[in-house]
Design goal:
Length: 85
């Protein structure tokens, strides 16, 4: 790669956006695991509301596709609905 100014700037921008995307995806995976690992329904519902908030925020910022966000939320809701009180 040559050392032109615009190319170097583009590399810096790509690194910054990759770090931002990585943090959002990490948050989504962590909160999803918390929902799936919870055994009580009330506890799971509390975690679910946090998960939906984070997933919607990531989808609105185009970190993940809106259909992927919908699928993720659907699977979380299905898991919580299957839990017994």
């Amino acid at each position: 790669m040559s050392a032109k100014g615009s190319e170097l700037k583009r590399v810096r921008q790509a690194n910054k956006s990759r770090d931002r995307n990585k943090s959002y995806l990490s948050k989504i995976n962590t909160i999803s695991k918390k929902v799936f690992m919870s055994t009580k329904k009330e506890e799971a519902l509390k975690e679910l509301s946090n998960a939906v908030k984070i997933i919607d925020k990531a989808a609105s910022k185009k970190m993940i596709h809106k259909n992927k966000a919908a699928n993720k939320k659907s699977s979380l809701h299905n898991h919580v609905n299957k839990l017994n009180k």
